[in-house]
Amino acid sequence: DLGCHSVLFQADLKKVFFYSAKEITFGGSKKAVVIFVPLAFLRNYHRIHSRLVRELEKKLSKTVVVIGQRRIIKKPKWGNVVVPRKNTMTYVHEAILEDLVYPTDVVGRRQRIHLDGSRHHKIFLDPKDQSNVESKIDAFSAVYRRLTGKTASFEFAAQQE
Length: 161
Fold this sequence. Notes:
Blueprint: H1 7-14, E1 20-26, E2 30-37, H2 42-60, E3 63-68, H3 89-100, E4 106-113, E5 119-125, H4 130-133, H5 137-148, E6 151-156
Parallel strand pairs: 2-3, 5-6
Antiparallel strand pairs: 1-2, 4-5
């Protein structure tokens, strides 16, 4: 139903599929849909990302985010087993962040540790994409919190001249 506008878009949609979708509620009544896709098809999704997300947001009236399906492997308590870097918690959380804000880039991060030991992450996004992504900032925070358990706020970096 989404690919009815263009023959090329239909052809691109036939090449991809997704594992699951999850709906996340934030800010009272706002909702976001997180679509989990296989890592092998993530590059194909990036190719059609803007059209696909625009069409899905029109159809669902919700913020739509596409994220690659990754798995965290925890270290075994015994033996000298080395966990591959791509399966560590740190790498997976960084990759989720990159997928979450895909049309734009993360240009900086700050981490604040409060007196009670809680952590708050400030993530700075590229200001050149501010007009495209600004409406999704609250959704990014809610989705990142739900998927990683980390509290984060997203801002746009100051323009350098």
